[in-house]
Amino acid sequence: MFNLLISTGAIIGIVVAAVVVLLVIIIVCCCVSTRNKFVKMRNSCEEAWATIDVYLQKRYDLIPNLVETVKGYAKHESETLQNVIAARNAAMAAKGGTEAKINAENALTSSLRTLLNVVVEQYPQLQANTNFLDLQNQLKQIESELANARKYYNANVKQFNTKIQMFPASIIAGAMHLEKFAYYEIEEEARKNVKVQF
C-alpha cells in the first residue's frame, strides 16, 4: 500500500511538474512572439518614416528651383522667399527625433502655402511660365505622395502605440523600453488645400 501511495504521489508530482513546465514554455513562447511582433511593428514604423523622408527630400530639392523661378517675377516678395528657404533649411537640419522633424516640416508646409497663395494671387503672369507650372505640378504630386506616406506611417504608428499599451503586451513593451511613436499630424492651417490655379 505504501508503494501505491508513493507511486500515486510521484505520478501527481510528475503531472504537476509537466503542467508547470508546459505553462512556462507557453509563457516563454508568448513573450518571444510578442517581442518579435514589437520588433516587426517598430521596423514597419521606421520603414514608413523612411518613405516619408524620401518625399521630403524630393520637396527639399524642388524648393530652390521654385524660389528661383518666383524670384524673377516677384521681386517684392523677398521676405516670403527668404522665409521659405529658412524653413527648408530648418526642416533639413531638424534634430531631436521624429516630433522635432514633424514640427519643422509643418513650418515648411506653412511657408510654402503662404508663398503659393501670395504668388498666385498677386502675380498672375507667373501662371504663364511653363517652368513655374511644371514646378507647381511637381510640388502638387510630391504633396500628394507625402500625404499617402503620412497615412501609411500614421496607420503603423497607431498599431504600434496601441499594442504597447495593451495588457499583457505592455509588460514586454516596458521590459524592452519601447516608447510611443509620434503621429505625423499636420497643423490645422495646413489641412486646407493648397490653392493651385491654372
TrEMBL record:
Q: Where in the cell is it found?
A: Membrane
Q: Which Pfam families match?
A: LemA
Can you cite an annotated GO cellular component?
A: membrane
Which UniProt keywords are present, listed alphabetically?
Membrane, Transmembrane, Transmembrane helix
Q: Does the keyword Methyltransferase apply?
A: no
Q: How does it sit in the membrane?
A: Single-pass membrane protein
User: In which broad location class does this protein mainly occur, judging by the first location in its UniProt entry?
Assistant: membrane
Concerning SUPFAM superfamilies, the annotation shows: LemA-like
Source species, domain of life: Bacteria
Fetch the InterPro entries from UniProt.
Answer: LemA-like_dom_sf (IPR023353), MamQ_LemA (IPR007156)
List residues traversing the bilayer: 6-32
Give the record's family classification: Belongs to the LemA family.
Q: Which PANTHER family match?
A: PROTEIN LEMA (PTHR34478)
What's the protein called, per UniProt?
LemA family protein
